[in-house]
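Exercise: predict the structure of this protein bound to adenosine-5'-triphosphate.
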Amino acid sequence: MPAASLVQGEADAAVSGVTHDSRRVAAGDLFVAIPGENHDARRFVADALARGAAGVVTEGPVDVPDGTVVIRVPSTRAALADFAAAVYGPSPERLRLIGVTGTDGKTTTTHMIHAVLEAHGERSGRLSTVGMTAGDGAPPAGFGFTTPEAGDLHRMLAGMADAGCTTAVTEVSSHALALQRVRGCAFQVAVFTNLTPEHLDFHGSMPEYAAAKAKLFAMVAQKSPDGFGVVNADDPASAVMRQHGPRRILSYGIENDADVRAVDIRCEPDRTTFTLTTPWGDQEIVSVIPGRVNVYNWLAAAATTLGLGVPLEAIRAAAEVTTVDGRLESIDCGQPFKVFVDFAHTPHALATVLRTVRPQTKNRLMVLFGHAGGRDAANRAPMGAVAAGLADVVMVTADNPLHEDPAAIAEEILVGAREREGATGDVSVNVDRREALRALVARAEPGDTIVLAGKGHERYQALAEGKVEWNDADEARLALAARGWTTPRSESAEAGRRGAVPQQRAASDGPAEASRVTATPGRKPGGGAS
Ligand SMILES: CC(=O)N[C@H]1[C@@H](OP(=O)(O)OP(=O)(O)OC[C@H]2O[C@@H](n3ccc(=O)[nH]c3=O)[C@H](O)[C@@H]2O)O[C@H](CO)[C@@H](O)[C@@H]1O[C@H](C)C(=O)N[C@@H](C)C(=O)N[C@H](CCC(=O)O)C(=O)O
Ligand SMILES: Nc1ncnc2c1ncn2[C@@H]1O[C@H](COP(=O)(O)OP(=O)(O)OP(=O)(O)O)[C@@H](O)[C@H]1O
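Solution:
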């Protein structure tokens, strides 16, 4: 720990936990008062002490009663991680740590690695944007972060080890690396997916963004002499990861030469098959997560697990059953068109998902998306351009606008959509996500594909007035039910074989609505979502 000094109080005070949030202090916790962007948490010290904090860690003077334990440190974020690692941190012998970083594909790759380890019979923990699981059958607990703050992270990892996990695979965001949330974690494997522009308002530039990601590789090099890195041979930013990484590097790719490759890739609407070629042998893979992009994610997961000594068979078995909530999640209520929910919220991811579903789309490709407030404004026009260039019908709506005006965000998206050469011009705006979704479903005809992008697994929408319950998959099912489709095609077919009458479109439904959706750019957000 860098130069901590005890300013007052007993040096041997007992500490049972560590937290950075006064509202979550339990008796015996050490409260680390971080000077944040919005608040200097020293103003919450009295609150923390009233809740029973065992002491306070700060970068500057605090006004506290005599006898209160006060520890002064040069960096409270570093201290939060160091104290949390000391109080909770499972040793590398107890828990092997795998970190996955990159712009897109972290959650999916994290889930795939976890699934392969479990298919191999290895009890593993998993921490991702979707939530945390300790391999004990309990449903994942969500926490609204990709990588939580250090106190929570070390406590969750300890919980995994206590639950009998021998390995933990965690998503590591660039924010986490820049803000020292993973400091003190002894990663044995660092995995890199890809790098495209995102979070540049936080990191400043692409080289700085790459450097933040490369910290994960540097951590393996420094802490784990037997560890290794996994890089994407088809992404030039892998050179930065290699430069900072450990000696042992495994590469994966489709286009370029790599240790682990996919050949003979066959993309079908609901699955992708390919031959995995590796130094450990070849294996036919059938992935039930469709799309070429998920071949990359499987390659990253395969290189990681093969590098750890897991057999090819476990990868084959995991690929046949693994899906991830809100990642190319197919919504099937028996309707004669496809509906996918996907978490794509960057221009690159949006382009990827639209290109993925285009070949299987017999009629029109329709996309609904918006952009989050308070971040990455530079991505808004490019997302408009991507959608207008790759989809036939574009519906711009609200994502998580937070304190920003969703109509103004939509206008920024439209700038890109309008400038797109060769775009169809079928672009509408409705910032009420429920109305927008229903309008798109109402227009869908046989052979169309609808992509509901940006919110993936999320179960809320963050509006200026607070969070309201929302889930794209549930809302899509409701919209389909309103048109009379409630039974998945597989079940309808089964019922049909048994002689039952499969549930069909409501008689009153009539032919698919062909009229254009009216643009309502000034509408108040989320009115229908509460
Ligand atoms: C930009 C960023 O990461 N900000 C983080 C930062 O916020 P901040 O500096 O504004 O904190 P602040 O609100 O000023 O508060 C300062 C301190 O006072 C404390 N506090 C505050 C109020 C109170 O009553 N009591 C109290 O103790 C807070 O817990 C905090 O420690 O420190 C806070 C806690 O220390 C984080 O919760 C917060 O994450 C915010 C919520 C966030 O949205 N972060 C996102 C951008 C993020 O981290 N995303 C990544 C990547 C996602 C991706 O892959 O796309 C992620 O890993 O999730
Ligand atoms: N390897 C990939 N390359 C490009 N796009 C991808 C890749 N994998 C997934 N995507 C797209 O990005 C979206 C987000 O995927 P995923 O959640 O796995 O990434 P992520 O890096 O975890 O994102 P976040 O950190 O924002 O949660 C997917 O819904 C899909 O559209």
